[in-house]
Amino acid sequence: KYASECTSVGEFGVRGGVSTFGLLYGLSTNGVDVKKYVGVDINYCPISEQMKVIAAENSIDYQFFQFQMV
User: Fewer C-beta neighbours within 10 Å, C or N terminus of the chain?
Assistant: First the structure.
């Protein structure tokens, strides 16, 4: 619900990407032309490339960062 009311979403702790699909869906239904998703996790998300394709099909600028504080 909340992602459908936003133009951008940030997710910290993507893990397996389950919630990411819901966030991308919400963004895809908001009716705005400019949409952005940014995901951050300490580990690489194995389905990140799939999510990137889904985002592109729905005009969502998708970015994933693998980042760990030292």
Answer: C
Q: What is the 3-state secondary structure (H, E, C) of the chain?
A: CHHHHCCEEEEECCCCCHHHHHHHHHHHCCCCCCEEEEEEECCCCCCHHHHHHHHHHCCEEEEEEECCCC
Average pLDDT of the chain to the nearest whole number: 93
Cα 6 to Cα 63: distance, rounded to the nearest angstrom: 16
Angle between helices 18-28 and 48-57 (to 10 degrees): 10
pTM for the complete prediction?
Answer: 0.90
Q: How big is the CA angle at 50 (ends 13 and 48), to the nearest 5 degrees?
A: 30
